[in-house]
Amino acid sequence: MYGKAFAPEYQGALTTLSVNASLTDVLAAGTEQLRAAERAGEHGEAARCGLAVAEAHRRLGRIGDADRAWKASYRAAREAGDTAAMAWALWSGGTLARQRGSFPLARRLLGLAAELGERGGDIVVRGYSLAGLAETGRIQGDYEAVRRLHEQLLAEARRRGEARHTVWALEGIAQIHRNTGSYDTAHALFAEAAEIAAGAEDRRGHAWALRGLADVVSVRDGDVERALALLSEAESMCRAMKLSSALAYNHKMRGNVLYRAGRYAEARGMYERALTEFRAMDEPRGQALSRLGLAKSRARLGRDRDETAAELAELAGVLERIGLRHAREMVARAQEEFGIGADAGAVGVR
To answer: Which domain of life does the UniProt lineage start with (predicted)?
Structure first.
């Protein structure tokens, strides 16, 4: 039913690159072809090679370089009058904005990308851009608003037999079910995503699906060793492809699994590791979630109650400003877990 996964963001002279190519290899090849296109004055080719450069930088956590690259790709596409290439550049920029926690900008850029994709006759970039809008809403916790869009995109991807996009949509819907307590449904969807990704040789999608499965196995079944084994399998894929962001989220999830198992010192170490990784790539959502896990672990290990209260109150403010509704609810649950009022701050607990 599904063919081998491919990476539509690798365009122009880079279409032969595998979806599983190491990001450092993608960056090297993309930079070489981009420079050649610029020397030849081929703006359209420069735009499409520049897209791969932007995406490699983003996934490697090199935020400043990614920001410059997608904007350069957009300018080259505009110079060439290539509407579809402009859409792809905006998609990359919108995805980067979401990664940086700039959700209003992400929605604006992804919305424009979807419009240009439709105008330019590129149904793939239109689909990826709508998917980006759906993921942005899901990350913020607007489940009802985006559930239908996720399901619509899943149906479209299945109809086209597009494995990578099918896997993405399944994982998004699974995450909504996991976050709303429908663990059996979430497990089934993550398992299907993992199976399709493995068959299509989509290592990135497979790694994210295994991470989701590990989460459900941990929270639903309490099976710590199975969850850790799934995360180890996913981590090997992340390392092979140099997926910095996915690796950091893998480590954060390992912290979650260890925390649920009462292995607080080990959890603390994993959260500290993930926090360092997220800080290196300027990823605010990952930083906040790692800080939350770290605060809870330290509290379990005997940290002063007032210090815990102050940090949780600060995190609540951070997540409120970012606009992460689900994560804000996680802080509220942590405050309840430790018997700390939501209004407790740095001056102590009332």
So the answer is: Bacteria
